[in-house]
Amino acid sequence: MAKVLVVTSGKGGVGKTTSSAALGAALAQTGQNVVVVDFDVGLRNLDLIMGAERRVVFDLVNVVQGDAKLAQALIRDKRVETLSLLPASQTRDKDALTPEGVERVIDELRAKFDWIVCDSPAGIERGATLAMRHADMAVVVTNPEVSSVRDSDRIIGLLDSKTAKAEAGEKVEKHLLLTRYDAMRAARGEMLKVEDVLEILAIPLLGIIPDSEEVLRASNVGCPVTLHNPISAPARAYADAARRLMGEIIEVVTPIERKGLMSRLFGRKVA
Amino acid sequence: MMNLFNFFSRPRTAPVARERLQLLLAHERALSGKSDLAAILQEEILAVIAKHIAIDREKVNVKLERDGTISTLEIDIEMPEAVLVRN
């Protein structure tokens, strides 16, 4: 039974695309058939983060409007056999997506894949509501920062009211993914703690991704962080989160990014 | 030595963030669904008043203010002297 998972946040720049790519790749590495779908029409970026930007021919809008077959638009990942990408359009605007068209594409994807990971655009407008529309599960990506937590609260409200599941009287399974977390700053009282965010948003914790240089390194070369450096702290945190999505029970530990003394003193990498 | 002193006396800002969020979200959650409470109240209050006296809709002002744990609803209706004199 295929699962539709939306990765959403309300606020921009918190790590939705990074998380979609990392979770998608981690799920695919366990042998599951995974497609990651970019819903950010007009500002596509998932192709770049996954290193497939030069292989895009057709996109989600072409498939929704019937100009291309689904199989023509899907891009198979070169590193993980069971991972595919359905890119967004770069030239069209968000109104190019219709609710009926999206529903038809999601139904078609359900027949082919085990996981359909929908990378939502920022905001609470049409693009974001269409991305969450058919979700069975949601990963709410949140930074430990006031505006991100507030926007996540709005998104949780939308997941409980505007999705197909909610309208049918069912619940979308919601999970909190705390990203850009700095355990040292939280311990010093400079950053909201995990418990603070959990208490305020009141949804179960899927994982804590440490603020790490590895994330930028992976995006520089167009590789999901879980594939680029699997033993790094963020990669391990994403891999554990993916296993929790599949129903495994793994204790969440607060990851501490190991920094050398010099880097801690001068705030950047030396040598 | 000064730097070390600053390090230990740095104010903890996270508790402030937490408190501000808790207050704000309590309000926003209460209002969600009833998208514009002030507008709904205005309509219903006007309907009640209109049953008894003729009022000019342009001369009605409804204000909902939120401040900490207390909210105030202010309704301002300008009425010509004539409507108060019943015959």
UniProtKB/TrEMBL annotation, chain A:
Similarity annotation: Belongs to the ParA family. MinD subfamily.
Subunit structure: Interacts with MinC and FtsZ.
Boundaries of every CobQ/CobB/MinD/ParA nucleotide binding domain copy: 5-222
SUPFAM superfamilies noted in UniProt: P-loop containing nucleoside triphosphate hydrolases
Record has Nucleotide-binding as a keyword: yes
Domain of life: Bacteria
The protein, known as: Septum site-determining protein MinD
Keyword annotations of the record: ATP-binding, Cell cycle, Cell division, Nucleotide-binding, Septation
Pfam family, one: CbiA
CDD domains: MinD
Function description: ATPase required for the correct placement of the division site. Cell division inhibitors MinC and MinD act in concert to form an inhibitor capable of blocking formation of the polar Z ring septums. Rapidly oscillates between the poles of the cell to destabilize FtsZ filaments that have formed before they mature into polar Z rings.
